[in-house]
Design goal:
- This protein has about 280 residues and is α+β, with helices and mostly antiparallel strands.
- The protein has a single domain, classed as Metallo-beta-lactamase, Chain A.
- It has 9 helices and 17 strands.
- Strands 1, 2, 3, 4, 5, 6, 9 and 10 form an 8-stranded mixed β-sheet that branches.
- The longest helix has 16 residues.
Length: about 280
């Protein structure tokens, strides 16, 4: 199953189908509402059940004009992620196999675009080879936002909190394969990036313009469909939750008045949707 927009084909490449995070941790304010009828009505088993928010860990693969572009790189193999057991020291290669099933070998990837530099978005940037982290995609140009990179570079001076900057970002920079993008940069014809701050300081969204509709790869501007019903509630892991809410409302309001597709990183299959405005909140279809 893939999304076709003119000459652009979009495929989801999932590494972890279901990753559970306690609602009380992810959205503490929402957890306080859990007994209300409003939230009970949202007890969609694909979204949230038994106090757990269900997330999917997914990359997007774009094919256009014989180019192969990856949006985000999931968790990866052999990474030390002790705080998240299902991310820690993975060895299953499931994600690479799915890429292979789409006819893509690592050396075929032309561009790797990182919306932001969290561990569940940059993992496959690198692979472990003879004890060293090397780029998984040997022929690719890797792209991320300059603001985002500079933020994590400054953070890393006090220690690499999540580990992913050291094992999945710096090796790309050191290999000379990383290029930094500014707000408004063009990644290719019809592919433009926009700053979407809040979840992280320099997160970028990728906007793919088609003939009639567009697709917006929004990274973690939204984590869960719960945030369509409660657009002002940001996750506890957002860097600036107020700014994240502002960015989210702006994006959803724009999408609610269009036929454009939204492609977040963590929604369940197929992972894309369109947005309808419902007064003060939103729904997906
Ligand atoms: Zn994420």
């Amino acid at each position: 199953m893939f999304l076709q927009m003119g000459g652009l084909e979009i495929y989801g490449v999932t590494e972890i189908e279901r990753f559970d995070v306690p609602l009380s941790f992810m959205f503490p304010e929402l957890n306080d509402l859990v007994t209300s009828h409003e939230v009970a009505a949202l007890n969609d088993p694909a979204v949230c059940s038994n106090g757990q928010v269900h997330l999917t860990i997914r990359s997007w693969l774009l094919r256009m004009n014989n180019r192969v572009i990856l949006v985000d790189g999931c968790v990866g193999n052999h990474k030390n992620r002790k705080h998240w057991p299902s991310w820690h020291q993975r060895t299953d290669n499931v994600w690479l196999k799915k890429l292979g099933a789409l006819g893509v070998k690592p050396q075929d990837v032309d561009v790797v675009f990182c919306t932001h530099l969290h561990a569940d978005h940059v993992g496959w940037n690198t692979k472990l080879e003879n004890g060293h982290w090397v780029p998984t995609f040997s022929n690719a140009t890797y792209l991320t936002g300059r603001v985002e990179y500079e933020h994590w570079l400054a953070e890393s001076i006090d220690g690499d909190k999540h580990g992913s900057f050291g094992d999945s970002v710096m090796p790309i920079v050191e290999a000379g394969q990383m290029t930094f993008l500014e707000d408004g940069s063009d990644l290719a014809h019809g592919l433009n990036v926009k700053l979407a701050p809040g979840h992280t300081p320099g997160q970028l969204m990728l906007h793919a313009s088609g003939c009639e509709t567009s697709a917006i790869f929004c990274g973690d501007v939204l984590h869960s469909p719960l945030q369509l019903r409660f657009p002002d509630i940001s996750s506890a892991i957002c860097f600036d939750r107020q700014e994240a809410a502002k960015t989210r409302r702006k994006l959803l309001s724009r999408l609610g008045n269009s036929e454009d597709y939204l492609l977040p990183s963590h929604f369940s299959d197929p992972g894309w949707c369109k947005i309808a405005a419902e007064g003060d909140w939103f729904s997906m279809y």
